[in-house]
């Protein structure tokens, strides 16, 4: 080999080495310039009588004050609770319930929830009914006295539970009480509305993703640091987890008779009332509804607890999906709408019979 060939080879090796180093640096820079997603979490206590988790996802590249966004989202939930809780004397709902008939001044949030409740009452053929507070109160009072309400008491309470005693045209106009006795309970929809409002706060801030969870009802949006958001479905028979969902840009709400109930003579009765009979709706241990808007998913979960699987074929339920768990731990039947399979990433426990409902 001549000296010029040797030189050429050495330059060749150096060139290859240089290219390799530059490629390495390039790859390293590319990897490091892909922003890592970071989840910021806040777990405020004492909200709506249950647990709460607010998550906002950021990639660290923006100047957004994420902690402040989380505080704002929490405030939104507390505001809705202050307006709509029947347990707070000064809430708008309590004032509405105490007021005599006439036009009642209400915030836009409360008017919206009342209007959505009216839509839900119609869509669910009366199964979702916020005017059933007198029946709920009757069962609460009777359970404290350790007795089942008398048939005549149930009839009387049913007579005071009636949408025709409230006039509401749309969310922008005043709400009128047409009778002194009508009372409302927004326990089946206010939580969902609060979740929607809190999630909007995160979304409006221009972050990458977020999730709001109040007592197991959630709405998620965008990305989590691990991709899709994971949501567990509780096993109503043993408090464990019976399935897991992976999804995004959706609300998931569950109603069940295992968490909150009246106990009379050692027997548990659901806190959800069938407004048509005035009796607790006890035939469905758990209903999970998946859909776009949390307020409606929340209300549909309550409505389907009353209606059971027949409710799945109601036309207005068309844009929502549901998983209904019926029966008992050793004879469990699951009914779920077809699209739920797209979100499920685990099987139900062995022995559970799963029926897919095609609509
Ligand atoms: P949870 O609050 O445990 O998530 P739900 O979302 O199903 O349960 O709401 C149940 C609450 O809704 C009850 O505690 C009561 O305040 C109210 N409620 C009960 N029965 C009905 C009904 N048929 N329609 C509308 N609201 C109801
Ligand atoms: Mg609900």
Helix-strand blueprint:
Elements: H1 3-33, E1 38-42, E2 52-58, H2 66-84, H3 92-98, E3 102-104, H4 108-123, H5 133-144, H6 151-159, E4 166-167, E5 175-177, H7 190-204, E6 209-214, E7 217-222, E8 229-234, E9 241-247, E10 250-256, E11 261-264, E12 267-270, E13 273-274, E14 279-280, E15 286-291, H8 294-307, E16 321-328, E17 331-337, H9 340-343, E18 353-357
Parallel strand pairs: 17-18
Antiparallel strand pairs: 1-2, 2-6, 3-5, 4-5, 6-7, 7-10, 8-9, 10-15, 11-12, 13-14, 15-16, 16-17
Helix pairs in contact: 2-7, 4-8, 7-8
The structure holds adenosine-5'-diphosphate and magnesium ion (MG).
Magnesium ion (MG) binds at residues 188, 253, 255, 298, 301-302.
Q: What is the compact description of this entry?
A:
With 359 residues, the protein is an alpha+beta fold. It has helices at 3-33, 66-84, 92-98, 108-123, 133-144, 151-159, 190-204, 294-307, 340-343, and strands spanning 38-42, 52-58, 102-104, 166-167, 175-177, 209-214, 217-222, 229-234, 241-247, 250-256, 261-264, 267-270, 273-274, 279-280, 286-291, 321-328, 331-337, 353-357.
């Amino acid at each position: 080999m001549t000296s010029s060939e040797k030189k050429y080879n050495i330059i060749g090796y150096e060139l290859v080495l240089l290219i390799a180093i530059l490629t390495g640096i390039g790859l390293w820079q590319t990897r490091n310039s892909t922003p890592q997603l970071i989840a910021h979490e806040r777990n405020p206590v004492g909200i709506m009588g249950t647990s709460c988790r607010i998550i906002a996802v950021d990639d660290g590249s923006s100047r957004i004050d994420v902690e402040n966004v989380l505080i704002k989202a929490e405030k939104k939930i507390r505001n809705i609770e202050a307006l709509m809780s029947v347990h707070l004397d000064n809430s708008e709902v309590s004032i509405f319930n105490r007021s005599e008939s006439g036009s009642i001044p209400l915030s836009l949030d409360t008017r919206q929830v009342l209007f959505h409740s009216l839509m839900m009452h119609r869509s669910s053929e009366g199964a979702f009914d916020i005017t059933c507070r007198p029946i709920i109160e009757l069962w609460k009072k009777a359970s404290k006295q350790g007795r089942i309400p008398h048939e005549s008491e149930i009839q009387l309470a049913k007579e005071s539970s009636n949408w025709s005693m409230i006039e509401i045209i749309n969310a922008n106009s005043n709400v009128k009480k047409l009778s002194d006795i009508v009372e409302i309970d927004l326990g089946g929809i206010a939580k969902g509305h609060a979740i929607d409002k809190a999630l909007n706060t995160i979304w409006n801030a221009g972050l990458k993703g977020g999730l709001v969870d109040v007592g197991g009802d959630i709405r998620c949006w965008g990305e989590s640091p691990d991709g899709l958001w994971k949501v567990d479905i509780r096993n109503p028979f043993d408090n464990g987890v019976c399935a897991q969902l992976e999804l995004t840009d959706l609300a998931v709400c569950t109603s069940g008779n295992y968490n909150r109930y009246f106990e009379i003579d050692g027997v548990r009765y659901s806190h959800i009332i069938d407004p048509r009979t005035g009796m607790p709706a006890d035939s469905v241990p758990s209903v999970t509804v998946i859909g776009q808007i949390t307020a409606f998913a929340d209300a549909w979960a309550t409505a389907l607890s009353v209606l059971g699987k027949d409710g799945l074929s109601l036309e207005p339920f068309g844009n929502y999906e549901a998983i209904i768990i019926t029966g008992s731990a050793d004879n469990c039947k699951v009914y779920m709408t077809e699209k739920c399979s797209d979100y499920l990433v685990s099987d139900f426990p062995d022995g559970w019979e799963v029926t897919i409902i095609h609509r």
